[in-house]
Design brief:
322 residues, alpha/beta, Rossmann fold, six-stranded mixed β-sheet, five-stranded antiparallel β-sheet, 16 strands, globular
Length: 322
């Protein structure tokens, strides 16, 4: 068993089955043994998965171009700030260097108060710990994690909390017996913080997920584990040694954002955002650098972003006005 697994197993033996949210917190974010806290780099060819931020420098240049468009639409205000949620290794810091840049992750950084600019995130919300539930016997019941020997297994718990039930009834279609769900209360908390801190500007969110209507495609929920570029449905295997994600509920982000004065301006594929970012010069400034070999490398990166990730990932652009 992994070190994170040992910790979780000891907690279950002492307290009984634990909420899945707690399992995900330890597996991903334990200060010593969590997946994102270990010395090993999980990203890239030698890791477990790619994100768009590893497709550099093209992704960074295109996102900077998109943010530049937003900056200009605001009248090029002085003190314009780009806050990145889930900044991790700081791969976007160079791309956003022309503005004040504030990196934030779960264990460092704070949103500045009353700023003008953009709150940017790429695959941040999908990695936040979620509540797991199943609709059984006419009510939402918590999915907990128990032990069977040395293996982690699902265990049905009590009725979910009022907050979780509100989330599931509001941002999903009417429930069906036996269906599994996730509620990302942490995402709503971050949306609220962004809406409170941003005086004037945009929230630009890149992630994969679904809308309320599209959620019917996931009767077993959307939890997934990733290791060595392979998706695995058993998310409780080897905690701390693999990534765990849950698709983002974009209906929740949009509608709760509206309550926080974050009004949706665009909801589109990443490919559409990239086309908007590069249309001014037909990607000339992004591709022309460093000779033919470098230009070819950048063209391949652009192709990956447009035709691979571009149709899988979606972009939500929300506007906060003074």
């Amino acid at each position: 068993m992994t070190p994170a697994g040992d910790l979780l197993a000891a907690e279950i033996r002492h307290n009984g089955p634990i909420p899945f949210r707690r399992f995900m917190e330890v597996a991903l974010y334990h200060l010593e043994h969590g997946y994102y806290r270990r010395p090993r780099d999980p990203f890239g060819k030698a890791g477990d998965f790619f994100t768009a931020e590893q497709v550099q420098p093209v992704f960074g240049a295109l996102m900077a171009a998109r943010v530049r468009q937003l900056w200009r639409s605001m009248g090029e205000p002085q003190g314009f700030t780009v806050v990145e949620l889930g900044a991790g290794r700081g791969e976007m810091s160079a791309a956003f260097a022309e503005w004040r840049y504030v990196p934030i992750d779960l264990d460092f950084g704070e949103l500045p108060e009353g700023f003008e600019g953009v709150v940017f995130s790429n695959e941040f919300f999908d990695a936040l710990p979620v509540e797991a539930a199943v609709f059984a016997g006419g009510e939402f019941r918590e999915r907990r994690v128990a032990l069977a020997g040395d293996a982690f297994v699902w265990s049905e718990g009590d009725k979910v909390s009022r907050e979780v039930e509100h989330y599931l009834r509001r941002w999903f279609p009417p429930p069906e017996e036996g269906r599994c769900y996730e509620a990302n209360l942490s995402a709503l908390a971050w949306i609220e913080r962004a809406g409170r801190s941003l005086h004037n500007g945009y929230l630009l969110t890149i992630d994969y997920g679904f809308t309320r209507r599209e959620s019917i495609r996931f009767p077993a929920g959307t939890l997934m584990g990733y290791r060595r570029h392979t998706a695995r449905e058993n998310v409780m295997e080897d905690p701390g040694a693999r990534d765990i994600t849950a698709h983002v509920n974009f209906s929740a982000l949009e509608e709760y954002g509206a309550e926080c004065r974050l009004v949706t301006e665009r909801f589109e594929t990443l490919a559409q955002t990239i086309l908007a970012a590069g249309e001014a010069d037909q990607f000339g400034s992004v591709l022309a650098a460093g000779g033919p070999a470098e230009e070819l490398r950048r063209r391949m990166q652009l192709k990956t972003l447009l035709f691979g990730m571009g149709e899988t990932f979606r972009v939500l652009l929300q506007r906060k006005r003074p």
